[in-house]
Structure formats: C-alpha cells, structure tokens
Amino acid sequence: xxxxxxxxxxxxxxxxxxxxxxxxxxxxxxxxxxxxxxxxxxxxxxxxxxxxxxxxxxxxxxxxxxxxxxxxxxxxxxxxxxxxxxxxxxxxxxxxxxxxxxxxxxxxxxxxxxxxxxxxxxxxxxxxxxxxxxxxxxxxxxxxxxxxxxxxxxxxxxxxxxxxxxxxxxxxxxxxxxxxxxxxxxxxxxxxxxxxx
Length: 197
Prior knowledge:
This protein is of the alpha/beta class. About 25% of the residues lie in helices and about 35% in strands.
C-alpha cells in the first residue's frame, strides 16, 4: 500500500510519519502531483495560519489537485479546515470539499482550545472499534459548525464537528497522531478503509 503525506510547507508531518511507522506502515512525504494521484491513501496535514497554507497549496497547484482525488484522503486539523468552503482565519476560501464554513470561537472561551476533549456521535467506519466519549488531542481557535457531513462531535463553548466525511474525503479537527492508542486506531482504520465510494 502506498501512503502519501502531502508536504506543502504547512504541516506537522514528522509526528504523523512516526505514528504511521508505529502501525507498521511506510509513508512518503511529497508535493508531487503524480505521486499523490498514484497513492492508495493520502494524508493532508496542516498546522499554522489558513491563508498562508492556502497560498502554499496554490503555489504548487495542489489546491486544484486535492478536490479531484478519488482515493481515501484524510485532512488533519488545519488540513480539515482548508477542505471546507471558507474559513474566517485570514478570510480564506477553502477547497470546497466539505459544505461548511469554518468560524472562530468567541472570546468567552480560551483560544486556542488546547488539550484533550471528548468525541461523540461517532458515525463512520473511521471510528470502527472506538467507543463514544474517548478523549482526543486538539489545538485550534477555529471550528467547523455541526453540519450534515459531521461524523464526530466535540463540545467547547458550542457543539461542533470534530470530524467530517464526504465520499472519499475525511477530516479530523483533532490530531489522531498525538492522541495515544485511540488516535492510532483511527489512523489505522483510515489506512485499512476499503474504497467503496
């Protein structure tokens, strides 16, 4: 199985790489469109500021490539947010894969939300063998509101979508690669998904 981690200058890719290796798989870091298209599974990470990350995607043409991919794709943290229609962070137009706009938590709560929080209302093969209310690790100031594509919910000020799914595209606001055994099981579930989209 060929696993690609998209390396576009805005991802915390080493921790994802190590998590995949702990599961017994090997991943390739690349921004080469042909390599990405040829992969069996694609991971789209993201750390940092949305408008800068989108600029990096556009410079490499990945903004047009990613929405056309037909294999399973997993966006993590900012990667998931960039897969949405728009984010308030930097007033950034996203890839439009998920039909939701990303908004900022209000000043009523401490931002970023940093640390462990629960996921529930789990609705996808991504969460095979995962029990409700497990704790996952999150670091974010912006969130995707609940929508039809939500496959996990977390509560911080409001209930929001902590994971999304649309056909072959998946996104997690939390960091599975930093969420211990449960997070690694979610990564493993993604890597073992059988495409039937």
